[in-house]
Amino acid sequence: MQTWNSTSNVPTDIGFLAILLRPEIQERFYAKVQHCQHEPLCIYCCWPWKGAKKKESYGLFSIPYKGMPGRRQKNLVASRVAYFLHHGIWLTDFFACHYCDTPSCVNPTHVWKGTHRQNQRDSVLKNRRATGVRSGPYTHPESRAYGDRNGSRRHPEERPHPTGEANPSAKLTADDIQKIRQLSATGVTDQWLAEHWTHIKGERISVANMQSIVTGETWKHIDGPIRQPMKRYGEHHPMNRITSQEVETIRFLARTGMTQYAIAQRYGLSRGYISDIVRRKRWKHIP
Questions:
Q1: In this structure, how many other beta carbons lie within 10 angstroms of the beta carbon of residue 21?
Q2: Which residue, of 55, 154, 161, 231, has the fewest CB within 10 Å?
Q3: What band does 2 get if pLDDT is binned at 50, 70 and 90?
Q4: Using CA atoms, how far apart are residues 190 and 208, in angstroms rounded to an integer?
Q5: How would CATH label the architecture of 2-125?
Q6: Any idea which of 89-93, 97-101, 142-146 has the lowest mean pLDDT?
Q7: What is the overall mean pLDDT for the chain?
C-alpha cells in the first residue's frame, strides 16, 4: 500500500504498518524500552530507548520487511513507532516532536505531532537554538577555518573554481586589471572604464564589475593600487534623508513614549522607516 507524501512529493510505502501490529513485533519493541516504576502510562518520566540509535540519539527499530528491492528489513525511528502503537496513526507528513526534548525518549505521552515549522518554533521558545554568542563560531573560535587556515589557501590546488584568467567566464586579463587600477588611481571614473573596456573587448563589462576590480573585491591576486570602497551606510548613503543626531533623537523620543506615527509626521518620514530605526534594523552603527 502506498500513499503520497506531500512534503517530499514522492510516494511513501506504508505497508510495513501491518507488521508493527504483530504481537511478537510489539513485544520485541517494548523489550528495548526502559520503563519507569510508576503507572503503566506515566506522563512524567522519560522512557529511554535501549536499542540502536542514530547519530542524533534518536532510537532505531528494525522490522523484517521486503518492501524495497534488495532489502530484507526496514529501520524506523523508535519515537514514531511508539506514537503509532499508542495513537494508531503513522506520522507520514509530520514530525514526531518531543515535549521532553529527549531524542531517545519513546514515552508516547511525550511525543506530539507537529510540522517542521512547529518543531522549529518549539526549539526557539525553549531556547534550544545555538544562536548569537552560543553558536559554534563563538564557543569554539579555534574551529573556524578563516584567513590562512581556510581550505582554499592551505590547498590552492583543490580550489573548485579557477581564478583569474583561468576562469572560463573571465573577460579581462591580468594586464587589463593592472591598467584599470592605475587609471582609477588617476581619477578616471568607473563608468568610463566600463565603457572603454566594453568597446575594447567587444563584451559588456558592467560598472559594478569595475567597482569590484578597483576596490580589490575581485582579482585579489593581482597587484596594483586599490581604492577604498565607498561607504554606503548612514549619512554616507546617497539616499540618506536624516543625520546621526536625528537618529539618536528619534530613538530617545520612542523611549519616552512618543508614538512612531507622531515621530514620522515630525520628520516627514514613513512610519515603517521610523519603526526600522527604533528596532535598529536601520542605522545599526548608531548606538
A1: 11
A2: 55
A3: very low
A4: 8
A5: Alpha-Beta Complex (3.90)
A6: 142-146
A7: 85
Q: Is the pLDDT of residue 11 over 60?
A: no
Query: Domain spans of the chain?
Result: 2-125, 170-230, 234-278
The count of other CB atoms within 10 Å of the CB of residue 261 is: 12
Q: Is the pLDDT of residue 60 over 90?
A: yes
Measure the CA–CA gap between 52 and 32, rounded to whole angstroms: 9
The grid coordinates of residue 135 equal: 553558536
What is the spatial distance between Cα 181 and Cα 201, in angstroms, rounded to a whole number? 17
* Phi, psi of 60, deg, nearest 5: -120, 135
Rounded distance between C-alpha atoms, residue 127 and residue 118, angstroms: 14
What is d(CA 124, CA 119) in angstroms, rounded to the nearest whole number?
A: 9
Is 95 exposed, middle or buried, given 0-12, 13-18 or 19+ CB atoms closer than 10 A?
Answer: buried
**Which band of pLDDT confidence, cut at 50, 70 and 90, is reported for residue 197?**
very high
Give me the residue label for grid cell 514515552: 107
Quick one: pLDDT at residue 265? 93
pLDDT at 231 over 70: no
Q: Which residues pair with 12 in a beta bridge?
A: 3
The DSSP annotation for the chain comes to -EEEETTTTEEEE-TTHHHHTSHHHHHHHHTTB---SS-TT-SSS--BB-S-B-TTS-BEEEEE---STT-SEEEEEHHHHHHHHHHS---SSSEEEESS--TTB--GGGEEEE-HHHHHHHHHHTT-S--GGGSHHHH-GGG---GGGSHHHH-GGG-SS--GGGSTT--S-HHHHHHHHHHHHTT--HHHHHHHHHHHHSS---HHHHHHHHTTSS-TTS-S--PPPPP-SGGGSTT--S-HHHHHHHHHHHHTT--HHHHHHHHT--HHHHHHHHTTSS-TT--
